[in-house]
Amino acid sequence: MANHKSAEKRNRQSQDRRIRNRINRTRMRNAIKAVDAAIVEGSQETAQELLMKAVPVIAKTASKGTIHKKNASRKVSRLTKRVNKMQVVA
User: Fold this and answer.
1) pTM, full prediction
2) A Pfam family for this UniProt protein (predicted)?
3) What is the pLDDT of residue 89?
4) Cα 12 to the center of its chain, rounded Å
5) CA-CA distance, 53 to 86, in Å (whole number)?
6) Which of 12, 17, 24, 33 is the S-S candidate for 66 at Cβ 3.0 to 4.6 Å?
């Protein structure tokens, strides 16, 4: 446990950041899961719609510093690739 006033403040700040990061990460993961579910279902229009909603969520998560910007870019790229591949196959 923290003994100094500054260490106690740092502990409070890190707890707040942890909670905020968890919320952002969960929101991002749920958006990605929704796109994945639409891909598995085989619904092209739904997958495209959900992708357009997921991309800003992923970008926002990166801009808040929860994930690295290259990690976000990779996630968007791979999701887009799967959705586009689905359109070519059908």
Assistant:
1) 0.88
2) Ribosomal_S20p
3) 66
4) 25
5) 18
6) 24
